[in-house]
Amino acid sequence: MTLDRFFPFLVWGRRYGRDDLQGDLIAGVIVTLMLIPQSLAYAMLANLPPEVGLYASTVPLLAYAVFGSSRTLAVGPVAVVSLMTAAAIGQVAAPGTAEAAGAALLLAALSGLFLLALGLLRLGFLANLLSHPVVSGFISASAIMIAVSQIKHVLGVAGGGGAVYEQVYSLVLELPTLNPVTAVIGLVALAWLFWVRRGLAPLLRRWLGWSGRLVDVIVRAAPVVAVALSTLVVYAFSLAERAGVAVVGSFPAGLPPLTLPPLDAPLAVDLLPAAVLIAIVGFVESVSVAQALAAKRREHIEPNQELIGLGAANLAAGFTGGYPVTGGFARSGVNFAAGARTPLAGVLTAVLIGVVALVATPLFRDLPNAVLAATIIVAVLSLVDLGKIAEVFRYSTADGLAMAATIVGVLALGIELGIVIGIALSLAIHVYRTSRPHIAVVGRVPGTEHYRNVERHKVLTDPRVLAVRVDESLYFPNARYLEERVMALVARNPKVERVVLICSAVNLIDASAIESLEALIHHLRDAGVAFDLAEVKGPVMDRLERSHIFPLLEGRIHLSTHAAMMAGERPAGTTAAA
Amino acid sequence: MTLDRFFPFLVWGRRYGRDDLQGDLIAGVIVTLMLIPQSLAYAMLANLPPEVGLYASTVPLLAYAVFGSSRTLAVGPVAVVSLMTAAAIGQVAAPGTAEAAGAALLLAALSGLFLLALGLLRLGFLANLLSHPVVSGFISASAIMIAVSQIKHVLGVAGGGGAVYEQVYSLVLELPTLNPVTAVIGLVALAWLFWVRRGLAPLLRRWLGWSGRLVDVIVRAAPVVAVALSTLVVYAFSLAERAGVAVVGSFPAGLPPLTLPPLDAPLAVDLLPAAVLIAIVGFVESVSVAQALAAKRREHIEPNQELIGLGAANLAAGFTGGYPVTGGFARSGVNFAAGARTPLAGVLTAVLIGVVALVATPLFRDLPNAVLAATIIVAVLSLVDLGKIAEVFRYSTADGLAMAATIVGVLALGIELGIVIGIALSLAIHVYRTSRPHIAVVGRVPGTEHYRNVERHKVLTDPRVLAVRVDESLYFPNARYLEERVMALVARNPKVERVVLICSAVNLIDASAIESLEALIHHLRDAGVAFDLAEVKGPVMDRLERSHIFPLLEGRIHLSTHAAMMAGERPAGTTAAA
């Protein structure tokens, strides 16, 4: 039913059982523990007040639970999107102002509308424009940017903004102003978080033989320990007041408010490019993880429905005091590992975060920013994959160049320009590749009716007939190339009277290629050369029959290469009889 | 030799004979007769003084003769590029000012540098981004824009600028101010030019049996008659002074001056996008006509050398008082038909136009602008091809949409935005098409070792083995789609234990597809399903062996589909013996 398709919860809701509930309850609680510090940290990364992070972790999750097609994707604030949000709203408003919060709402709403539009128009395929090297390079580069931007919080220096090299420069300059107590807390937290990941996790896994899933859940819960202990220490010794340790501070308690994104057309125009990129990057991240998790249980996700689910989540964020959200890699993994069966786990998480926002905000007053920054650094550094760069270069220089350009672009020119450069370069490489398809002159394998590349096989050729096989569909990137190559071959072989184009690898002939074929046929005619086709596939043939060049080809399209080669000869039977 | 490659004239110059000279002389004279009114008319279209048109028809032709690879391409000012020039310089300077002339020089120099860079880097393939529907739609739409913009000159009304509908609106409003004498001259010239084309040409061809080439030359010379007669009439009756007929007027005589394009970085940045588009559009126009003409004599053109030739011509235009030039459709056809054998015909044309610029400029003082406008209208309206739009739509809706978007974009938003929209839409359609390749589940044709699509043929399948054939290279536009489709097929067939991917149509696996294959293999493993490949082509295999996923595939790559299908079974021989 159509309703089932647009509301996936109707499907899993009908069959919901006690087993499902148990898994969802446990997963919901564990994800909540992980999400509380993340919400606060990523809001800090986005230059937004802490409560915005909590709000973004409530109603958007409910919206995704209704419309999303993944059973186990955990939606909410994530690092990369938070950084992109900071960059986008930083261009239109000063941090900490009401304008900045309004811009975040508008950004979320615009992203949501864009995702919904893509989903309803079934344009999810556009996300394919982000090739893997671009996504991978982009994530590594943003992770480095994010980590660098958090060092100042860990050390308690003022630090500056701007590009990565500017931030590093200002960190070095301001190192003498470092707050020693903050630095100790921050560095201890950093060390603890790294140790849990690199030391404790292998220990539990290898020495105690604990399962990978359980260890994963424990590793992801480590930030909660750091948050709780450091908050206690700061509170006990009044370090915020006495040692100047920067803390989250007081922020209003309450359920997410109903908000209206500012209806400001020029602001919307300014934010639109960022909203589009945030939507696409968020979608690619979500769909990758959703697909990986669905596959483990032989479930299936529907990319266009994912667009609708994420669109609804972001639209909800825009109307309930949040900022752009998406499905997170690590969080979804924990959700899955902790046993989540359905999006009800997300609903529970949303409710629990709502309760936290309502009653527990005073608990975070003495939480040091240094610890939040440390959790961000540890989380994002696991995304940096330098080995991947070497691996991609080894596999394909062109793909490696696209990746390197994205990394350099993101680090030197900013996230948005970096992605755009990466996409443009991938497309250029793709057009370049398809613009020069492999074209082989073929000859007959002696004693058979098979035809093979003259350069690789000992084959028989007829100087009067040029048989050319093109190993690619014929469309605009290569239309003119085929024309050039065939004409060049004819110019080099003055005895040629007929050209046979073998179309066994041609899955499509587009309108540009039709024009090229028409030009080719006329050029060949002007030079006194006939033109035949062979092995045209059914769907290609259907279309050719509709085209205006069909009269030029009638009676010149042969079922097999051999039939085409023999077409100019006296019938084989005649020769045999003579 | 390398020198021969970079200086094509070394090749034809060595073998130059008396026959060549005769052809080149006649063609040079005829093209000059055609080019004189065109130079003045297109300069008017570009909102530049008449002498700029003449200058652009001299030294740039010499530069092309040295570096161009086409024997018969006639370079110079053309209608579409003149319109683009008017639009580009209109945004940075008022018409008729020294700034406008300087901007035209800079535009030509930038276009020239861009073309040279593309040629030297051998990036001519980028012109393939302009698909045929986009070029065709763009030319029709610009021709309509150009024709509409000239009506005011034909009628002698003030008229306005702006988009097409604005121009039509202001024409209607200002119709009462029409200059009757101008309108009579303009409409008579228009009628004459149309009659020569539609009435005289068929007459000569059919009734007198004259050859197509000769008739073509006569038709193209008709503007000369209109120019000469109308100038005489205006001169004899002093219509410029007594009846207010707008005329070309006095302009300085002399050879093309040496000029330096303004070295103004911000201006260059403003003009760069227009320069790039002018370069690409000019290159596409040139290469199409050069290729058509070369083919007729089994000659060959080299697209990257054409870039260098056109780049040199435009650079020359920037330094000798001209504006952007390219190879023209009609003019090159006349050059060819009149018997041109080598670029020496172009050299002769350049010299003759130089003589005209030096001594004959007073002759054009009384040439009415209305007649120049009429020659432009007749020339460009032959480029409007409404039948083509219907033809493209009939052949392919997607290509038709790209064409329609280009036309609407050019007419409503201007030339540059229109082209960019067309290119973006073509690329999106291309990505959409390749993002959803044909994927068939295949089964064994009974009694053979052939495997065919289960939906089209009666074949045998094994519920434990899923054999999937993908009819496209695996690269980023479709990498994720393959993963989704295979996982969906496995989700629908719970008995499946092994997936065999048949790669007979796969010419490339890029880095994105490698990641997708890796994810697919892991997802399948998580679901307890093995993954094999079959019929991997040689170059693809070479690359696979270098990739990090090769260990996952070792021993699982089979030469044929049949071998892959049998790999899981007891050897066939065993069964037979039992």
Describe the protein's architecture and organization.
Two copies of one chain form a homodimer. By secondary structure, chain A is mainly alpha-helical. The first copy, chain A, folds into two domains: 2-428, no CATH class; 439-577, Transcription Regulator spoIIAA, CATH 3.30.750.24. In chain A, 65% of the residues lie in helices and 5% in strands. Chain A contains 26 helices and eight strands. Residues 570-578 of chain A have low confidence and may be disordered. At the A-B interface, α8, α13, α18, α19 and α20 of A face α8, α13, α18, α19 and α20 of B.
Cα shape of chain A:
elongated
pLDDT averaged residue by residue of chain A = 87
Number of helices of chain A: 26
- How are the strands ordered across the major sheet of chain A? 4-3-5-6-7-8
- Classify the helix fraction of chain A into a percent range: 55-70%
Main interface pair? A-B, 77 and 76 residues
Structural category of chain A:
mainly alpha
Integer tally of domains of chain A: 2
Number of strands of chain A: 8
